[in-house]
Design brief:
About 45% of the residues lie in helices and about 10% in strands. By secondary structure, the chain is mostly helical. The chain has a domain at about 1-25. The protein has a two-stranded antiparallel sheet with strand order 1-2. The structure holds zinc ion (ZN). Zinc ion binds near residues 6, 8, 11 and 23.
Length: about 70
Amino acid sequence: MPLVKCPHCGKEAEFTGNEFRPFCSERCKLLDFGAWADEEYSLPSESRSMTDEEIDQIEKAQAGKKEE
Ligand SMILES: [Zn+2]
């Protein structure tokens, strides 16, 4: 039986007939995907929308420039 090392926990699991491969179990598959997804969501602020305060500051800065 070919064995494959689970990328999440490192445990060797059967490759053949393993519907969760390359993970050893559904748990590892979900946990690993969850960790990956979390990382994706915690990516920096650039894509998040600005707060009213930030928009206000930008507007003030732009207004100030126009007056000069
Ligand atoms: Zn595992």
